[in-house]
Amino acid sequence: MKPAHGDGAQEAPFNGRLALLLAMAMFVLVVDTSIMNVSISAVVHDVGATVSGLQSTIALEALVSAAFILIGGKIGDLFGRKRAYLIGLVCYAVGAVAMTLAQSLLPIIIFWAVIGGLGASLLLPSIQSLIHGNFEGAAQQRVYALVGASAAIAAAVGPLLGGFITTFLSWRVAFLLEALVIAVVLAGIKLVHDVPYEGPRTLDAVGSLLSILGMGGIVLGILVWQEGGEAVGALLAAGVVGLGSLVYWLVRRKRRGRPTLLDPGLFRSKGFRFGATGQMQQQIALGGTMIVLPIYLQMVLGYNAMESGLSIAPLSLTMFAVALLAGKRAAKRRPASLIRWGFLLLVAGLVLLLPVIPRADSGWWLLLPLLIAGAGLGLLVSQLNNYTLSPISDERVSEAASVNSAAGSFGLSFGLAFAGGIMLAALSIIFTGLAESSTVLPAAEQQQVARVLEDDAQLLNDTQLQELLTGQPEQIREEILRINTEARPLALQIALSIPILAGTLGLLTSFRMQRLRDPGPKGGGTVQD
């Protein structure tokens, strides 16, 4: 039974334990892939796999979760949001336990990538739907903020946490701890109240297939692009055609009064469209930032994974603290206003990084810009989900949560891949230009040096590059180091333009939000400044 609310009804006491368990579920969902990413070399050594095989497995998990995420919300409607949440958690637990026991790559592919990916497609929309169904008003806003902050800090500290456990204990311990956290969340399943779905109970098979082709094609294209593969354009085009066909199918089926995978009427709401768009733009900015900064710290400053994580910690900690504070005290402020301030602070912090990058000789230089950007991200994660989903009816919340989750997942993947791709492309161009304009390097060696730098130097810090150049004449060695030193910060500044652009577009979106009335729960009422 849903907590009492509405006119003349007294709201139920805030269920802090349930809120914490939902936040823990989201944390595990996000941190899982981070643990795998930082454990690649250890996993490869222990199970006798190859690096490319494990990277493909990680890509497969992302592909499965993205391809089925729109269907995941509909499954929650048909079989129960609470049941979808439970099944998703069990799938993740199976994947985590399999990782602790795996002796070869095959069980990792089956249980972690495929079953775990399907679990993610159920968990993401069901968590948001259950927040909508178990909390009301200010309490709902607080929980959206807590869960959003949990996801953000998991993305930020996941590599640090996974690296620490893998280095000093074992990657198997990291996944065992993940399974234990899931067990704690599952122990509190009785606290979750389900909200019955009263709409059509027929599965739209064609719409489901088109959603798999559309989302799967786009995400696969991004993954192939990230790995430097071929046919990226064809994959992205296939994904776009798939999503376009899905839209056509949904509109046509809706006009005929037939059940649809998603209600296309959701997109007639400007608030929903702007909210989901803002979610995607925020995640592009976050993904781009989280790929650029670690590369900068490790390539330019020579930091290891632990030191890089500690240097980025001000971003994640500020994000978490501001999200919690905003979730508790934002009831008298318009969500659109807080979203606008969030994007403004995010862009300001990222812009401040641009002059810092060429000058910094330690992570301390990043402190102030990261505090500002983290405060902006904290405001965003505390407000965007609430803004997008709180006005949606119980009947349509799973569909809306699926679209919102898909927008966020796509944004994060795109930000990571595109910022990384831009950085590598910029390095190649800058290396070649500096090598060809060098008055020290012989003309016959300029192209060779540019090619070597493009292939190797982008992955090495200065100490490792010096070792690579052992045996070269001192003058040549010093010139190559100079080219490398000049090229990297500039390439990283160019890559940083991707999250800055996404944040700026988000700021423009927030001004459009500002012109709309802020809907209260289920479309009622407004909240004014």
UniProtKB/TrEMBL annotation:
GO terms for cellular component: plasma membrane. One of its GO terms (molecular function) is transmembrane transporter activity. Gene3D superfamilies: MFS general substrate transporter like domains (1.20.1250.20), Multidrug resistance protein D (1.20.1720.10). It is found in: Cell membrane. The chain crosses the membrane at residues 20-40, 52-72, 84-102, 108-131, 143-165, 171-193, 205-225, 231-251, 284-303, 309-326, 338-357, 363-382, 403-431, 490-508. This is MFS transporter. PANTHER family: MAJOR FACILITATOR SUPERFAMILY MULTIDRUG TRANSPORTER MFSC. InterPro entries: MFS, MFS_dom, MFS_trans_sf. It comes from the Bacteria. PROSITE patterns: MFS.
